[in-house]
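Hey, I'm writing a tutorial for new members on how sequence and structure tokens pair up, and I'd like a real worked example in the thread rather than a made-up one. If someone can provide the structure for the chain below, I'll link this post from the tutorial.
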Amino acid sequence: MSLIELSHRIVEGMITYPGIPAPVMGVHLSREASRDLYAEGTEFFIGTITMAANTGTYLDSPNHRFADGADLSGLPLEKLADLDGVVVKGVDLPDGLDVAGKAVLFHTGWDAHWGTDAYFTGHPHLTAATSAALVAGGAALVGIDSFNIDATPPKGERPAHTTLLGAGVPIVEHLTNLGALPASGFRFHAAPPLVAGMGTFPVRAYAVV
């Protein structure tokens, strides 16, 4: 058994999506200040982080797109963890691929541009037809190693988000390292914290091979 990391690190100042603020790290209790609170030789650090929910590798719940959709706290673990996984090369779903109950991860290689301006434009994305096929096939979760699962023109439609989230299928965007996975035969995990009223949040996505 091996564990494969599929998430980007979150660091101060990183830009995940232009226009969304970068995370800011801070200190609630420094190690130096904590020494006055505990026995000699005992110290702790308590940090703070201010960030948008769409930071790093994150999961979209239906509430991200639909006001009455399930939020992070309304998603059962069965949709987020220990899922049978398959990797699709590119953004076209092969005919006859069994996706029922599976995490379907689209490996585009776009993560190679992470941290550069090239990441934000011309990125691979799913079509409305592919999204509909995933829903019809019973996919449990869909992920992609690209900037967005949809095309991102100004004021554009978002058919992949609308179709998948409308059917209750969570989405994981900004994955990385999908090239390290086999085409099938692994388990996928991407569970966010149980935050009520929140539609998206970073995850530690990984696979068990």
